[in-house]
Model the fold of this input.
Amino acid sequence: MDCEELQLKIDMHVHTCYSKDSLITLEELLSYAKKRGLDGLAITDHDTIEGALKMASEKSLLIIPGVEISSSEGHIVGLNITRPIPKKLSARETVDRIHGAGGIAVACHPAGFFRQSLRKHVDSTFDAIEVMNSAEIPFGRALKQSMRIASCLGKPQVAGSDAHFGPEIGCAYTVLDSEPNVDDIVKAMCKGQCQPSGGPIPLSVRLRRIIEVNKRRL
Ligand SMILES: [Zn+2]
Ligand SMILES: [Zn+2]
Done:
C-alpha cells in the first residue's frame, strides 16, 4: 500500500429523494455529508440513476454515481454507473450488465434478514462485498455473516450507511487509500485498498425518521 496516497472517507450507499422511500433532498445530501466529515459518497438510488447523474458534477463533494438494482435474486449495488441497468434480471446477468457499463458490482447487505438480500447468490463475479450496512437489524449478526462471505470469496470489504434520512448519512463509511476521483476510488476498492468503518444507525435517529415520515404523510 502506498503511504503517500490519501485516505478518503466515503459512504458507499446513500439514497436520495429519487428513491421513493428516502427523505434526503440533494441539498441535505451535501450538508449532512460535510457535517459528518465525509470526503464523498455514492448515490445508490433504487433502480434509477437520475439523482446520481444530477449530482455527478458537484464540486464541493466527491460523488460516485451508482444505483441499487433490484435483481430477481436480491439487491445489488453498481458503482461508477452512468447508464440505466434493468431490474428483475438474475444476479449473474445484473453483474454482467454492471461490468458491461464500466462499473463495479457490490453485494450489498448480502446476509440481510428482513429485505431482498442475495444470500447464497453472492459469488466470485462480484467485485466487493458490503460487509457493514448501518440499516441492518440485527447489525452485529449481519456484519459477522457478511464478513464471513467476503473472506470465503477473498473479496474486498466495504461499508455504507444505506441512509434514507439525512442524519443517517455517514453512520458507516469506507476508508480508502486512493486519489480523490471516481476512477481511482473504484480501482482502489477492487484492489482491496479499503476498509469498513462505523456502526449501526442509532435508535434515536431511527425514531426521528419514523416521526418525520409520519409528519409528511399528514
Ligand atoms: Zn437494499
Ligand atoms: Zn439501499
